Automatic annotation (TrEMBL):
Belongs to the PPR family. PCMP-H subfamily. One of its GO terms (biological process) is RNA modification. The lineage of its organism: Eukaryota, Viridiplantae, Streptophyta, Embryophyta, Tracheophyta. Pfam families: DYW_deaminase, PPR. This is DYW domain-containing protein.
């Protein structure tokens, strides 16, 4: 039994054997499981059929998988829904013009790119801290590839260790290299 089938069996057992209706967190996990497995259409159908209104986390799980699996058409549709639900959420604006799924004008694009707090935090650390201690940053959003690349370059250029903790993992940068998974 694969992980998708196992996940389906857990959700089925909740309702069938334990008379427990899935909550939003259960649906998000199932959407994420389907989407990460490449079953994007099935994940979207699940969202559309949920008895609970999908939130930004639900749609965000699908958007991340659209990017991973290269489905820009669905990604654009999901991105629009996310922006309707929460237009000011920075996590829905991946940096780098090649990573933006929605068509937006240049001014809006630049505004979006400058929102990534770890770049600002690293810069602040470089200008305000003594040169020897590592720069440590904690944030609640994902670290995107352009920020990841910038941190690698800055560690080499300034001979500084940088540690970024995002919502998923620790990213350790030192001497132009890193100890996390390459984006």
């Amino acid at each position: 039994m694969g992980l998708v089938d196992e996940g389906r069996s857990y959700v089925d057992a909740m309702t069938r054997y334990y008379n427990v209706e899935p909550n939003i967190k259960n649906y998000v996990r199932m959407v994420d499981l389907l989407a990460r497995s490449g079953l994007l259409k099935e994940a979207e159908k699940l969202i559309d059929s949920m008895p609970i209104a999908p939130d930004v986390v639900t749609w965000g799980a699908l958007l991340g998988a659209c990017r991973k699996h290269g489905n820009s058409e669905m990604g654009e549709r999901v991105g629009r829904k996310l922006l309707e639900l929460q237009p000011d959420h920075d996590g829905f604006h991946p940096p780098g013009t090649d990573e933006v799924l929605l068509d937006i004008d240049k001014e809006k694009e630049e505004s979006t790119l400058f929102r990534h707090s770890e770049k600002l935090a690293i810069t602040y650390g470089l200008i305000s801290m003594a040169p020897s201690p590592p720069i440590r940053i904690i944030k609640n959003l994902k670290t995107y590839s352009d920020c990841h690349a910038a941190a690698k370059l800055l560690t080499k250029a300034f001979n500084r260790e940088i540690v970024v903790r995002d919502q998923h993992q620790f990213h350790h940068f030192k001497d132009g290299s890193f100890s996390c998974v390459e984006f």
